[in-house]
Amino acid sequence: MTDQVTSLTSQAQTDIEVNRQILIESLTLLYRSMPSAALGHFVAVTFIIFALYESVALSPLLIWGGSILVMAAIRVAVTTFVERRIMDAEIGAISKWANMLAALAFIQTSIWGASVFAIWPDDIGYRSFLIALLAGIVAAGGIMLALHRNSFYIYCLPITIPAVIQLCLGGSQLELLLATLLIFYSGLLYFSVNRLTNVFLEGLKLRFQMQTESRTDALTSLANRRGFDESLHDIWQQSIRSKQSIGLLVLDVDYFKNYNDYYGHPQGDIALRKLGELFLKVASRSTDLCARIGGEEFAVLMPATELEGSQQVANAIMEELLGARIPHRNSKNGFLTVSIGLNVIQPTRGSTADTFVMETDQALYEAKETGRNRISIALSVINKAKADDENPNL
User: Fold this and answer.
1) What is the full DSSP assignment across 84-129?
2) What is the DSSP-derived secondary structure letter of residue 345?
3) Tell me: the pLDDT tens digits for 211-247?
């Protein structure tokens, strides 16, 4: 039952991460298209003003065109703001930003739709020109926002509905024909964009699921060595930017070869799964990463964590394992224990993650050499603490 709950929890975490990556990927593609989209709005507005300035009142024409350009500038500014922060954000923040960008797109397309009331020409030829240009805006925007499941409602309907209403109110044969074509065209676009969205998102989800599985240890459902290395690299760069510390624990199960020799490898696998569950229970923040980086070697990576917080997690692991009392007859303690190497660093441009891990491994080696079932702090951390004590004003 416990294994089943752990599997379901791991699957839920995987689904959350996959959805996060899908949001990041789709928003990133949107960001890349925003400069060209803003330029497209500018060209289209300029073209309309040039074509209609003799057919409609100039004041509403300029107000309408200025509103479009202001919204385009706001969208570019907001997407630039979000792009700088998206890689470090949680899925909740990313979803909020996606909804905000969708709302801005809806406002801009509503302004485009309002053109059929604000700058509706008297001449049927100019009306046809405006409708044709609006149809082009719908097509371009609908495809650009195809990665958003509600793109049709965001970008197409706010333009299509007002245009169809105004054409029907005109009542001429040509206007009714244009309204019919616009409805047909919009329906065709809806099915095309919806199919494109489904194909893209399903393919993206499959790709990220495969990437996630390649970073996951099959036995414990923790991250594997590859997942640990990639996460450390990302957290390292993030910590340099945010000037925050990283805590790292490297744990080795004491006398695990003797455990397998006595109980057998199937029981050893069960013990490793129990340890994985225990580590996840203690290092429970969404930003923490628990990984199996070797046969009986684990790691707990803790972003934005100082020495005190890292020691609390290490001590909590020791206490939980003591309380679990997993039998181990071939150990002097009579139950499973772990040795822990602990390290903390605030990364800088001149520091490296490889050195950080190597120093933590050395601390683990010291813990094993001095009796096992204990926590050893990396020498670099001890030396820094001594230097801070000797120079309290630094």
Assistant:
1) TTGGG--HHHHHHHHHHHHHHHHHHHHHHHHHHHHS--SSHHHHHH
2) E
3) 667 788 889 989 999 999 999 998 998 899 888 999 9
Angle, CA of 290, 235 and 34, to the nearest 5°: 125
Structure tokens at 143: 């495809």
Domains, the chain, with CATH or none? 2-213 (no CATH), 225-390 (3.30.70.270)
Sheet holding 297-303, edge to edge: 289-292, 297-303, 246-253, 338-345, 375-377
Say how many residues make up the chain. Answer: 394
If you ran DSSP here, which 8-state letter would residue 274 be given? H
Question: 244 near 303, Cβ under 8 Å?
Answer: yes
**pLDDT score recorded for residue 5:** 44
Taking the CA atoms of residue 344, residue 375, residue 295 and residue 369 in that order, the dihedral angle to the nearest 10 degrees is 120
pTM for the predicted model, two decimal places: 0.59
Task: Decide if 298 contacts 292 (C-beta within 8 A).
Answer: yes
- The identity of residue 328, as a single letter, is H
Token code pair at residue 145 = 């926002």
Calpha distance 323→330 (Å, rounded):
19
Tokens of 250: 């490297």
For residue 122, what are its two tokens? 């008297």
Contact 153, 110 (CB under 8 A): no
